[in-house]
């Protein structure tokens, strides 16, 4: 691929991302004019509460920041997991991250009485990481080692078990159900940008690992024998990339709850433009992921006024037909 063909899509994607950021702040139940947007932005940055648009802009800035980070994390995590497992249906749920996070959040609500978003962040982070480590330990202990198949099977088994425990707790405690369901649906509404500081250390480390994993993922696509022939320490390389992908997924789930289909669909959309080279796929996913989350979140605010549809529902509603289209038109999942 020529340099022009490499950077032109990236430039277009960057422009679309900038537009999505602006639309996310300007559009909602109350759409701001350019003058109101600029005035509210200046007032919000200066801490002036007297401007009527300042509160709206400040809340949407928080929502936009969280949505962009969640989209970045889920998009990159999905791309890395698909390359690592050589499974085109892989997403952050394949290693049990979502189920582990949900289980620990429910247990925290039930037995610790927690109900704040800040508390959910730490519970979801711990649950997602512990679940992924357990999945890897179980698959590594199998006769064939931690192969894509054994990791997928272990993830499915852990997810089924965790979902059963979650359902049992919620059936027994209606109050826990009322608290948990607002997190479980997947939403960036009401999440202060300060939550980003809570996940920043893990987010930065995981982002660095995945961003630099393009060559490892390209080698993984060739198979383990060729990976060894290329001089890679296969298990160490795969474990490092898996740790980064799980870290990103755990950060996203901690911030917004489980966001469906983004990690699954984004890498396929990117590959339609970039081809199979994972160095380009990762770069494209880092752009398309935030765009998809921000635009679906914005659409959810205006599709059923005066109420709104949470972004986790919108991504599922829009992601399912996109995935079907990819299968029928491009054979992307074959």
From TrEMBL:
It is a multi-pass membrane protein. It is found in: Cell membrane. Its main location: membrane. The chain crosses the membrane at residues 93-112, 119-139, 151-172, 193-216, 236-269, 281-303, 309-327. This is Iron ABC transporter permease. PANTHER family: FE(3+) DICITRATE TRANSPORT SYSTEM PERMEASE PROTEIN FECC-RELATED (PTHR30472:SF1), FERRIC ENTEROBACTIN TRANSPORT SYSTEM PERMEASE PROTEIN (PTHR30472). GO terms for biological process: siderophore-iron import into cell. Belongs to the binding-protein-dependent transport system permease family. FecCD subfamily. The keyword Cell membrane applies.
């Amino acid at each position: 691929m020529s340099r022009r063909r490499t950077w032109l899509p990236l430039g277009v994607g960057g422009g679309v991302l900038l537009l999505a950021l602006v639309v996310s702040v300007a559009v909602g139940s109350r759409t701001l004019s350019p003058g109101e947007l600029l005035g509210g932005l200046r007032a919000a940055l200066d801490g002036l509460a007297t401007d009527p648009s300042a509160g709206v802009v400040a809340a949407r800035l928080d929502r936009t920041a969280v949505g962009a980070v969640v989209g970045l994390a889920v998009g990159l995590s999905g791309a890395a997991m698909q390359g690592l497992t050589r499974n085109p249906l892989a997403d952050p749920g394949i290693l049990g991250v979502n189920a582990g996070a949900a289980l620990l959040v429910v247990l925290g609500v039930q037995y610790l009485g927690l109900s704040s978003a800040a508390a959910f962040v730490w519970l979801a982070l711990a649950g997602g990481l512990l679940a992924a480590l357990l999945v890897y330990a179980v698959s590594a202990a199998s006769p064939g080692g931690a192969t894509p198949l054994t990791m997928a099977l272990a993830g499915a088994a852990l997810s089924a078990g965790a979902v059963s425990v979650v359902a049992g707790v919620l059936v027994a405690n209606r109050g826990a159900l009322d608290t948990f369901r607002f997190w479980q649906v997947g939403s960036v509404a009401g999440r202060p940008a300060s939550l980003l500081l809570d996940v920043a250390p893990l987010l930065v480390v995981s982002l660095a690992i995945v961003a630099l994993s393009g060559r490892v993922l390209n080698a993984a696509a060739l198979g383990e024998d060729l990976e060894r022939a290329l001089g890679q320490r296969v298990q160490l390389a795969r474990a490092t990339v898996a740790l980064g992908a799980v870290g990103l997924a755990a950060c996203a789930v901690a911030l917004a709850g489980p966001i469906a289909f983004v990690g699954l669909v984004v890498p396929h959309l990117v590959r339609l433009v970039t081809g199979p080279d994972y160095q380009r796929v990762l770069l494209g996913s880092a752009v398309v992921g935030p765009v998809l989350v921000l635009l679906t979140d914005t659409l959810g605010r205006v599709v059923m006024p005066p109420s709104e549809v949470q972004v986790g529902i919108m991504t599922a509603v829009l992601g399912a037909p996109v995935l079907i289209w990819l299968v029928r038109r491009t054979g992307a999942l074959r």
